[in-house]
Amino acid sequence: MNVSVVGGFKCSKRAYDDAYHLGKFIAHQGWTVVCGGGAGVMEAVCRGAKEEGGLTIGILPSYTGEEANPYLDVKIPTGLGYARNVLVVRASPVVVAVDGKYGTLSEIAFALNEGKPVLGIGTWKIKGVKGFKKPEDVIRYIKRRWK
Prior knowledge:
The protein has 147 residues and is of the alpha/beta class. Helices cover 38% and strands 21% of the residues.
């Protein structure tokens, strides 16, 4: 199963740590991380997943992919800028938002518009986003829903 993880290319240490542990937990389940492929939350979730032997996919905004973080297995340069956020959302049955600003908010909106569950850790508190305090709680929720 794919899990799309969205969040800012700049983030706090806490958000980085949450995303890093989330990546570890995702990989431990045998799931694949899909993200925007850049720095910050995206790098952290990929780093955690790679350290557990997981597969990581980055759907990148540029044509060249120069912004790709070093923990990506599959780099998909799109040349679409923020429009690639739709592809990140559509790649998985669930979206996990960690921290984030307006780019993350757009991904949350796309997911909610498509009827996908959005799980959040320290992100936007809006209707439709189910909030969690810890990455392991997110994983438990996903496991219960997608057995």
